Fold this protein.
Amino acid sequence: MSVRVRFPPSPTGYCHVGTARMAVLNYLFAKKHGGTIFFRSEDTDKERSKIEYEEDIKEQLKWLGLSWDEFSRTTELVAAHTEAMQQLVKENKAYVSEEESKKEPGKLVQVIRLRNPGRSVTFTDIVRGDITFDTTELGDFTIGRAIDDPLYHLAVVVDDATQGITHIIRGEDHISNTPRQILIQEALGYERPHYAHYPLHLGSDKSKLSKRTGDVAVRSYREKGFLPEALLNYIAVLGWTPPSGREILTLAEMVEEFELEDLHKSGAVFDIEKLRWYNREYILKLSDDEFAHQVMPILQKVAGERGLLWNAEMGMRIMPIVKERISVWSDINDLALEGEFDCFFNDPTPDASELPGKSASPAEAAEHLSALHELLSSASEEIFADPERLKGIVWDYATTKGRGAVLWPLRYALSGRARSPDPFLIASIIGKDTTLARIKRGISVLV
């Protein structure tokens, strides 16, 4: 069998994680088996479907690294839908019914209803096994608003058959649609495709995620600075455990390991902290040049917003600090707002009341800073480039006098903030002259 699957998003909202997950699972299965992928924009909801949503879905899926072989829109295939309904009416498997309009009470409209044989339908689900429905309760259900205006169930069945779809891989919320679609397939004499309904992923409160609940638009994660490879990886393993047990996999490695039978039978929680972990793992895999290429424009932007004196050389020097502290690019903005980078671009103005800290008096803090100034003055530029060697120079003194009493004033004198990177790291980045100048300024504030 030549595998043929489809991405059938409804363009009634921006691409959300659920749409992306559907596309990822279909993509992995098709590529594993050398199959064909159809992107079918199911725009049967004429009032809510918009081209901008369709374009967003296509853009975000491409950003994630997915592709497809053919593209179509449901509304452009209406001739085949009309022909199918005409066939059903002609064969007395469907009929035209004159009914009161639901939108305009008192107005009569004609709808097309399928004659339901009212029997049990059983289909084998690749994920869940055999599922049986008694279709009697469905009655003669509507398949078209008019002979040339199909509803979703009729349109999707005809399109699947016309495009030769062999496997329908979709969320469990579509299970209830399957008996209607099977009845339409049988009425039209179509071959039944294989079904695989995977569990939906859930929000942190175990509720179903949707386009209308929570921060789940792919574009939102993209704007926050998540890497496409990380988001793709996390979405793929959400409810799927690769046989290798590995968590970090390339797209090619996912294709190699993927089988529908390995999908979990219960819903997985979409955990933003786990996604952040994935993103950090991918950030750590970036080369220094790749990392700097991504970070430098963000740093320059936030420096400008905070009124800092931008210095590209200093920006490059603080790359290790940035890499150590972020999981996603937007964390840089958060750190900047907290003043984490201020001391690297602007000289701080120490507050005399904060500078001594809680472990020393102003006079004692001034004494300790004077001692540190003397100790560090003797250090070479080579030693100043190494935080650990700087630490070694002052550690015995700090241990003897009390580390809190010594290191707090040093940190505050160098950064001007109660919270900041390690003082020895700051000193190694800003250099010997600037370090000694800031220590002297701290002493002058205290005496």
Summary: Residues 288-345 form one domain. The longest helix spans residues 288-305. The chain has a mean pLDDT of 93. The CA atoms of residues 44 and 167 lie 21 Å apart.
